[in-house]
Design a protein that fits this description.
With 70 residues, the protein is mostly helical. It is built from two helices and no strands.
């Protein structure tokens, strides 16, 4: 089931970023929301082929690595 996470709610934002705006460990969101169907972490070259339990994704736009990386 696909749902919406309202990031206007502070508690929901804290699943992904802390009060200082830094990322939190993905295990925090996984514990609260469950295992994601698609895990899009990692290099852009892997998007669509790795971590997709629902099957491979088809890219319809250019995907580039985030700078600065982790």
């Amino acid at each position: 089931m696909i749902g919406t996470i309202y990031t206007s709610i502070t508690a929901n934002r804290r699943l992904f970023i802390n009060a200082d705006g830094n990322p939190v460990n993905p295990s925090v969101a996984i514990a609260a929301l469950g295992t994601p169907v698609d895990d899009l972490r990692g290099p852009a070259s892997n998007i669509g082929t790795d971590g997709c339990s629902a099957g491979d994704l088809t890219k319809v736009v250019t995907v580039t690595d985030f700078k600065p990386g982790p």
